[in-house]
Amino acid sequence: MASFWNGSVIGKRADMPARPSGIWSVRQQGNLKRENQWTIKSPSELSGLVMWLDGADGATVFDATSGGNQVTAGNAVARWEDKSTNALHFTQSTANNRPLYVSGGGLDFDGSNDQLQATNGSNVLAGLTAFSLFVVFNADSFSGDPMLLRFDTQSTTDFIFELGQNTGTQNISYLGESSVSTLFRTYTNANNVTLSTAKTYVADFKKRAALEGVFSVNNTEYYAHTGGLAANDVRSNQNSTIGAYANNTYFNGKIYEVIAYSRNLSVNESQAVRGYLMSKWSITP
Questions:
Q1: Domain-located, residue 76
Q2: Do 245 and 151 touch, CB atoms closer than 8 A?
Q3: Which of 64, 216, 260, 265 has a CB 3.0–4.6 Å from the CB of 269, allowing a cystine?
Q4: Shortest CA distance to 136 belongs to which of 218, 232, 220?
Q5: Segment 137-184, tens digit of pLDDT
Q6: Domain for residue 1, yes or no?
Q7: Residue 75 and residue 100 in contact, taking contact as beta carbons nearer than 8 Å
Q8: Other C-beta atoms within 10 Å of 29: how many?
Q9: Domain of 123, in residue numbers
């Protein structure tokens, strides 16, 4: 029989019969976490949530940078509201540069001029020695140097996630610190994670310590980086951008959800967030 925790199927546990209420005890929950069977229903269940852009929640997209009306499918999004307590909303004041809201959830960026930005001084990753960042996306095409997310750091060439860096190939990577941008890039041209168009992915980067980080795609760890990340503390006086880099290279596709924590999530916590996202957006490895 399937076991239930808070009403959600989490696996078969013959040696742990369900309680009459269907809710596990604290000790049982601890066992589930250790055995990698722990699930979450919301990113807010984990501490340290500093940004949550949920494209499945139609109550978070509006047709004005402040106030306005909720957007329906096929219409332009001027504001994507953050569901964390930081209220780090991403906006676009230029009507022609706004992504469209997708039926079923998510924002569609046209690869031409669409982007959203958070205000200077509002960067949720500013000064953090450790953080965890997740993004769910589906690319329509790969060209130029399109950007999913940009969190400006110590120099103008520092980012967290990039698509098609320099070559326009179907790759995903993150770029670390240093004005010599190729020095700390996770994936060089010879060692990329190759993506497919029209396929949904969840990618995440965890900065585990001042000199350590790890990059994963669809719950598979591809690269653990040590050294060279000491200065990768995001500046607080820079814009955060979704869907573009430097106003001239743009992401062509859908961005469904973005989640950030102000700490290094544990292995089980990270897998729980990935599981939540992969189930929610029907992502297969």
A1: yes
A2: no
A3: 265
A4: 218
A5: 998 987 666 778 877 544 444 555 665 544 555 556 555 443 333 333
A6: no
A7: yes
A8: 15
A9: 49-280
- Asked if pLDDT for residue 62 goes beyond 80, the answer is yes
Cα–Cα distances (Å) from 53 to 4, 14, 81, 109, 180, in that order, read 28, 38, 7, 15, 31
**pLDDT at residue 4, as a whole number:** 35
CA distance 235 to 232: 9
- Asked if the structure places residue 30 within a domain, the reply is no
The DSSP output letter for 169 is -
Query: What confidence score (pLDDT) does residue 228 get?
Result: 54
Number of domains composing the chain: 1
In angstroms, rounded to a whole number, what is the distance separating the alpha carbons of residues 112 and 143? 11
Q: What are the residues whose beta carbons fall under 8 Å from the beta carbon of 178, sequence distance 6 or more? A: 155, 157, 158, 184, 228, 231
- Report long-range pairs for 9-18 (Cβ below 8 Å, ≥24 apart): 10/37, 10/38, 10/39, 11/37, 13/37
- Give the chain's mean pLDDT: 74
Instruction: For residue range 225-269, list pLDDT tens digits in order.
Output: 665 544 444 444 456 889 987 656 788 999 999 999 999 999 999
* Whole-number Å distance between alpha carbons of 92 and 96: 9
Q: Give dist(CA 77, CA 245) in Å, integer.
A: 19
Report the DSSP beta bridge partners of residue 79: 62, 91
Asked if residue 36 belongs to a domain, the reply is no
